[in-house]
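sanity check this record:
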Amino acid sequence: MHDILPQDQPIWEKMRKVAKDISDSYNFSRIDTPIVEYASLYERPLGAGSDVVEKQMFILNTKGGDGLALRPEGTAGVSRAYLQHGLSHLAQPLKLYYEGPMFRYEHPQAGRFRQFYQSGFEIIGSEGDAVYDVQVILACVRLLETLKIKNLSIEVNTIGCRTCRPNYRRKLLEYYKGKEKKICADCQRRLKNNPLRVLDCKEDICQPFIKEAPIMLENLCVFCNKHFKAVLDHLEELALPYRLNNHLVRGFDYYNRTVFEIFTEGFAPALAAGGRYDYLMEMIGGRATPAVGGAIGLDRLVEIIKSHEINLIAKKKPKIFLVHIGDEARKKALTIVESLLLAGIDVYESLGKDSLRAQLKIADKIASPLALIFGQQEVFEQTIIIRDMKTGAQETVPLVKIANVLKKRLK
């Protein structure tokens, strides 16, 4: 887990603002769900055999014996809230977005932490229309583009539905028959729990077998085939750069039909990912509700923004620095600061320091163009000195006029 330090906060603030602006543009409303949920909320929808449930969830046991989990992803919690609060009674489809920390116990590496941050888009109750699959992809792409991340590519696949997937599953098991001892231990386990996940394995030993495995696209039912064709038609109409990846399955049991991941050139992990999850509501006790969503890994965006030196932050107006000298000046300094702030003038100060030299050193360090010097004589005369930090030139101004004078000087 990691700290987000002050120097990185402007990037995070910009990302959150962009996420909100994109959400507003596409009519998504904000939802915040708890960081802690019942562990059972994730165990079935994500899959008992999934890496997240088996290896990565942080499990907590309460004094009352409840099994809780720090949320490893956002979709299950949003779906639980949708059911619990009867959000199906609102105008459908309901478009929701969220942003916040998730938790997974995994090996920390570039762009991957045990506490990580995601921003996500969910469209629930959409009658399964392919246009919403593409709108979620589009929202993710536009967010990334607004953050000046270039050379994006979308990988997309379909993993079918309850009708066509069992037949494909049989074909996949038949193909791997006799090969079990030649693949990695994780894939041996996956063949028993969820065979589709063998296609997503990254181990070198498994790649030759994945390459020759049967593909879902050739085993779709009529409805899934029509749905996926509509997804691709929309992507082409929007001129979004995509490629078919027959081995893309995503890691959770709740996905069906469309799955996608978005990458940028020269960076291996996916920046955004998601898909359709029409069966998730049933898995957690509701009725069948078509839905689709996608999430963006914000930590990964920060890594790219910093490594590519992408300039997202508008240059801030430099702050005036108020220097005080003596106890009487210190007493009145806070009042001066407040009056300037109310006049719309940003002020920096260091009221805990007494030395003139130390205060001017700070003013120089933060590149203040002007310093205001307020000492014992100025307290008595109700004046203040404006000092140009570049030239050293000084001007004495009545306190009552300081705000107007500064506004003219700062134009």
